[in-house]
Amino acid sequence: AQKVTQAQTEISVVEKEDVTLDCVYETRDTTYYLFWYKQPPSGELVFLIRRNSFDEQNEISGRYSWNFQKSTSSFNFTITASQVVDSAVYFCALSEGNTGKLIFGQGTTLQVKP
Amino acid sequence: DAGVIQSPRHEVTEMGQEVTLRCKPISGHNSLFWYRQTMMRGLELLIYFNNNVPIDDSGMPEDRFSAKMPNASFSTLKIQPSEPRDSAVYFCASSFSPGGGRTEAFFGQGTRLTVV
């Protein structure tokens, strides 16, 4: 069965620190998709990134970077030079088969203190 | 594009009442999903539609829950009768899936339901 595990429940850092959010997934599918979403205090879910199972290239977008490693079934998310506005709950998710249905991890609450 | 639009944003109702949540997906998207978020269970899929047809409703908790998608631009999630344990945030999401789960889903702002 598909599963997403975010072992870190809460992380607290001071502004400008780098922080990595861990995500480990389980799936039997050979083709799958991984996602990260951000849920700020206002409550909406904001899409951050999608990664295909056949593309293991790391990706960088501004202060955000993602490290996808199929060998360890991990899809970790790093925020460089964190800012207070990064404070949110971050969800890692796995897309099941060809349906587009998302299986979410439990989320990691990130608090960035000034 | 206005994004996925959900209404109402907040709903407080008494136990036993019928509740209807509404969703307008992004124009051109052909998949629509209803998720529920609670502290205990996190984010879980209730039902999803593809081209207006319900494909998988295995996440619907019980017969009190029903969902419809009469056309490509509108969906409803109904709870009748509502119970306090239905209190949660309900999200609607849509995506364009030309042949599978290859595109990201965009979420509405959610409806916070409180059943007292």
Descriptive overview:
The complex is a heterodimer of chains A (114) and B (116). In chain A, a hairpin with a 4-residue loop joins β8 and β9 (74-79). Helix content of chain A is 0%, strand content 54%. Chain A has 114 residues and is mainly beta. The mean pLDDT of chain A is 94. By secondary structure, chain B is an all-beta fold. Chain B has strands at 5-7, 10-13, 19-24, 31-38, 42-50, 53-56, 65-71, 74-79, 88-95, 106-107, 111-115. In chain B, a hairpin with a 2-residue loop joins β5 and β6. The radius of gyration of chain B is 13 Å and the shape is globular. The interface between A and B is medium-sized, with 26 and 29 residues.
What secondary-structure arrangement, pairings included, does this model have?
The complex is a heterodimer of chains A (114) and B (116).
Chain A: E1 3-5, E2 10-14, E3 19-21, E4 24-26, E5 33-39, E6 46-52, E7 59-61, E8 64-69, E9 74-79, E10 88-96, E11 101-104, E12 108-113
Parallel strand pairs in A: 2-12
Antiparallel strand pairs in A: 1-4, 3-9, 5-6, 5-10, 7-8, 8-9, 10-11, 10-12
Chain B: E1 5-7, E2 10-13, E3 19-24, E4 31-38, E5 42-50, E6 53-56, E7 65-71, E8 74-79, E9 88-95, E10 106-107, E11 111-115
Parallel strand pairs in B: 2-11
Antiparallel strand pairs in B: 1-3, 3-8, 4-5, 4-9, 5-6, 7-8, 9-10, 9-11
